[in-house]
Amino acid sequence: MESRHADAENYMSKNRKPRSSIFTGLLLILLGVIFLIHRYYPEFGLGHLIRVYWPVLIILWGVAKLIEYLAARDPGDARPAFLSGGEVLLMILLAFVLIGFVFHDWLGDHYPELNIEIPPLHQTSPQSKELAPVHLPAGAHVVIDTMRGDISVHASDGDELRVSVNETASAANETEAQALLKDIDVAIEQTGNTYTVHIVRTGNDREWVSADFDLQLPKTASLTAHTNHGDINASGIGGDLDARTESGDVEVRDAKSNVSVVMQKGDAHIARVAGNLRITGRGSDLDVSDVKGDVILDGTFLGSASVNHVAKTTRYTSPRADITISQLNGNLAVESNDIEITGSSGPARIVSQNKDVKVENVAARLDITNSHGDVTVELAAPLRDDVYVANDSADVDLTLPAQSGFEISAISRSGDVESDFEGPSLKTANEGNSGQIAGKFGSPGPKITINTTYGTIHLRKGS
């Protein structure tokens, strides 16, 4: 009897149909969402999101397999295959789609002149128009807003607002593209002292239509420029400038007042600002020079950042670095794995992780807190203020002029110390698992405090 029962169970086990996997459905949903976003919101920056958040695909896979495992614990159910043939083909297709969007955005960022698009509609038709000039009172505020297209603005000696626009529509054929252009217009609306330039659409506002604007305005006017997908170029603006782009580069030159930039993808090049500068959001490369006020850079910048000659305070904040410098008369350069400061009349403070830090010629107090990256400090002039360095799991290298005077406390836990400076009041010792430099050298001077773990402290004598 027991034998027959066992045989029946074996028969049922062999003939169980495995549960179907839910992972295939999740992949199809993800593909559909990707194409839907691209169809209706092409300015969304899918390539950037995919490049940053692609591990979500692995999370979805793990969640699906966990659900399947728990469900297969019920009697009579067989577990689905770890990865079926259909899932493999679908994952290959998804991989090609994701790589395509990333490559498309990369080309758009590095070779914008190619003007590569992946629209569902491919026939284009352009048209240009110039609006009647509008007289602006002194101190007027001009607002330019477009969903898709570049914005170029320059100031002139006149008192008129002049607007030129180049419109482009994409459709399945030339006739449909031209029909789309008939459904859009450009208007200048006045509300008090504010003049708004924008597209007026009578048809479907989600159609593939772009408008590139070229504006000329008086030097006394302030400007707000916003494009969801396009570049912003402004020069000589006399009033405050507010530039916002969801996907595109920003270039500002010879701004006579404050400048604010909000971006999500692209490069920023800012030169000669008479007021304060603030850049927030996400982007690639930043290049900032000659700012008379404060500079605030706050966001996630995946490329390189270069800041030169800032009269007041420079503040750079990102997920892996927090930097504050007063009177930057040299350069601040931030790369993916490096921070370098060359020349500062005021104090500098750096908090970072997983980056090598190099500082040269900071004349005032220097405060560095770092982890998992070497710290190198080189000073050509004798210390005028205190130096504090705290590092974790890396080396610290400090070079001072031979004629320096200072008091020092440098401790390396689970590491060594080395010093080119010698004197009766200066002690250098490596004992057990730790090294220490302590005491005074030369005439009374500022205090140097260095702490590190699993690294060597080098105190070097410069020329």
Describe it:
The structure is a single chain. This protein has about 475 residues and is an alpha/beta fold. About 20% of the residues lie in helices and about 45% in strands. It has six helices and 32 strands. It has helices at about 1-15, 25-40, 45-55, 55-70, 85-110, 175-180, and strands at about 125-130, 135, 140-150, 150-155, 160-170, 185-190, 195-200, 210-220, 220-230, 230-235, 240-245, 250-255, 260-265, 270-275, 275-285, 285-290, 295-300, 305-320, 320-335, 340-345, 350, 355-360, 365-370, 375-380, 385-390, 395-400, 405-415, 415-420, 425-430, 435-440, 445-455, 455-460. The chain has a 32-stranded mixed β-sheet that branches. Helix 2 runs parallel beside helix 5 and helix 3 (about 45-55) packs across helix 5. The longest helix has 26 residues, at about 85-110. The N and C termini lie far apart (about 100 Å).
Structural class: alpha/beta
- Fraction in helix: 10-25%
Average pLDDT level: 84
- The whole-angstrom Rg is 31 Å
Continuous helix count: 6
**Unreliable parts:** 111-123
Question: What kind of sheet is the major sheet?
Answer: 32 strands, mixed
Give a brief outline of the structure:
By secondary structure, this protein is α/β, with parallel strands linked by helices.
Question: Characteristics of this structure?
Answer:
alpha/beta, flat, single chain, 32 strands, 463 residues, 3 domains
Write the layout of secondary structure elements.
Elements: H1 2-14, H2 23-40, H3 46-53, H4 55-71, H5 85-110, E1 123-130, E2 134-135, E3 141-148, E4 151-156, E5 160-171, H6 174-182, E6 184-191, E7 194-201, E8 209-218, E9 222-229, E10 232-235, E11 241-245, E12 250-255, E13 259-263, E14 268-273, E15 277-283, E16 286-291, E17 295-301, E18 305-318, E19 321-334, E20 338-344, E21 348-352, E22 356-362, E23 366-369, E24 375-378, E25 387-390, E26 396-400, E27 406-413, E28 417-419, E29 426-431, E30 434-441, E31 447-453, E32 457-461
